[in-house]
Structure formats: C-alpha cells, structure tokens
Write a structure and sequence with these properties.
Order of helices and strands: HEEEH
Strand content: 15-25%
Shape: elongated
Helix content: 40-55%
Radius of gyration: 21 Å
Distance between the termini: 7 Å
Largest sheet: 3 strands, antiparallel
C-alpha cells in the first residue's frame, strides 16, 4: 500500500496511460479546437440558412442530420463536435481503465 511520501518509478502502463489518455484529451480539446479556429471556423457547430416566405433565418445545429428540411448548410467545422467528443471520451476511458488497473495492481 502506498503511503504519503512514498515514491515509485513509472512503469510502461503508467506512461501509456499518461501519454495516451492525456494525448487524446489534449488532441480533442486543444489541438482540434485550435485548428478549427486557425482554419477560420468561428463556431464548432454547423450553421444553416433557411429561407421561408422571403425571410431568411440562420441557425446552428450539432450535427448535419439535424438541419431542417429545405435549409442550406453555409458553414461546417473541419472537426465536428461529435468527433471531438469521441476523442476526449476515449482519452477519459483510457484514464478510467488505468485507474481500475491501479486499483487491482496492488
């Protein structure tokens, strides 16, 4: 059992969890977000325009499938919010599996 002040060397599993999980979370939040901004997308959502009765309305949705019928998508992010969320979730799963591993490693 580890106590306060106890030091131990990092093994391969520790490094894989840190680099793998941390890398995926950083990729999903920071890197993909920064690339979206640098490419010129102000919003991580899909922007559409709908013309009805001579009046044009603009809206935003999370996925292209949610765009209303008859609307035109005018801007879409390079990396959609769903892809970014999956990458971050995968990183958190890696951290969770590492936590379970450490719990039963002894």
């Amino acid at each position: 059992m580890a106590t306060i002040g106890d030091t131990r060397q990092l093994d391969t599993v520790d490094r894989l969890a840190m680099y793998g999980g941390g890398g995926l979370v950083t990729l999903g939040i920071v890197v993909m977000g920064l690339i979206n901004v640098l490419v010129g997308y102000e919003s991580p959502l899909y922007v559409y325009e709908l013309t009805s009765g001579g009046e044009t309305t603009t809206g935003q949705v999370v996925a292209p499938a949610l765009v209303p019928e008859g609307a035109t998508v005018v801007a879409s992010p390079l990396f959609g919010p769903t892809l970014r969320a999956y990458v971050v979730a995968l990183g958190l799963i890696v951290f969770g599996l590492y936590g379970v591993y450490r719990l039963f490693d002894g």
